[in-house]
Automatic annotation (TrEMBL):
One of its GO terms (molecular function) is metallopeptidase activity. CDD domains: Peptidase_M90_mtfA (cd20169). It holds the Pfam family Peptidase_M90. This is Unannotated protein. GO terms for cellular component: cytosol. It comes from freshwater metagenome. InterPro entries: MetalloPept_cat_dom_sf, MtfA_fam, MtfA_N.
Length: 258
């Protein structure tokens, strides 16, 4: 549907990716240096497109810089770069990204609908809304981009929810065109979800047991952050994620340490 894309977006994609942005990604985002030249070029193209399309809104009094926008956009782009989605259609329902300086503390219960999800009852690092914004705490975004070894990444988590919500349902299943792969996905994820619900030992943190939507979001951030650990502990889950995302981050990590 390229003909529907705005002129602004086409012009942005035609511009070179600023060296200054590249330099900041190298400092801010541990994964950047693991990408090969082709992967970097893809992330750069998608990042330009993302920034031309998605509005960033600061929370009150917070100054959102280019560096912040680029770090969020690059990771959201990285998430889908292997999914055969060259024009970021998978994020077409996203309205904006709202950045807070740090986690937002909320009081009382966090009883929220399935279209509004939160990751901790007290300090929210991120939220994803159906046909609405992604809300992120910059302090968490910055820390986790530098420390994938912790196994968590709020940007990948919240944008995984965006993929999940693409079809209007939060059910832990992103768009998967191939029927056989979709069936395998459901079978493997259902078995793994049951294991975490039972409290069996898992690389996935306990939050994955909340519901199938959180299972997918946690599995996604684990897959990209600590891929070798996930591959060793849950090879079937790793394998189906590898096919759905069209990326093999464990192989990339091994290539890096060879
Ligand atoms: Zn979540």
């Amino acid at each position: 549907m390229a003909f529907r894309r705005g002129r602004r977006e086409r012009e942005a994609v035609a511009q070179p990716f600023p060296d200054a942005w590249r330099a900041r990604l190298a400092v801010r985002w541990a994964t950047w240096s693991a990408l090969d030249a082709t992967e970097r070029a893809t992330v750069e193209d998608l990042t330009k497109r993302f920034l031309a399309r998605v509005r960033f809104e600061p929370s009150q009094g917070f100054a959102v810089t280019d560096e912040m926008r680029v770090l969020v956009a690059a990771q959201a782009s990285y998430l889908v770069m292997g999914m055969d989605d060259p024009t970021l259609d998978l994020y077409s329902r996203l309205t904006s990204v709202i950045l807070h300086p740090r986690t937002v503390v909320v009081r009382g219960t966090h009883s929220v609908g399935r279209h509004l999800e939160t990751d901790s009852p007290q300090a929210l690092a991120g939220q994803a809304h159906h046909r609405g914004p992604v809300v992120l705490a910059w302090s968490t975004v910055a820390y986790e981009a530098r420390h994938p070894e912790r196994g968590q990444n709020v940007v990948l988590h919240e944008f995984a929810h965006q993929l999940d919500m693409f079809d209007g349902m939060i059910d832990g299943t992103p768009p998967i065109a191939d029927r056989e792969l979709r069936e395998r996905w459901v079978r493997v994820c259902t078995a793994e979800y049951r294991r975490v619900r039972r409290g069996d030992e898992s690389v996935l943190r306990g939050y994955a047991a909340t519901d199938t939507g959180e299972f997918f979001a946690v599995a996604t951030e684990t897959f990209f952050s600590v891929p070798e650990r996930l591959e060793e502990a849950s090879p079937e889950l790793y394998d189906v994620l590898r096919e759905v995302f069209g990326q093999d981050p464990a192989a990339r990590a091994r290539r890096r340490t060879d």
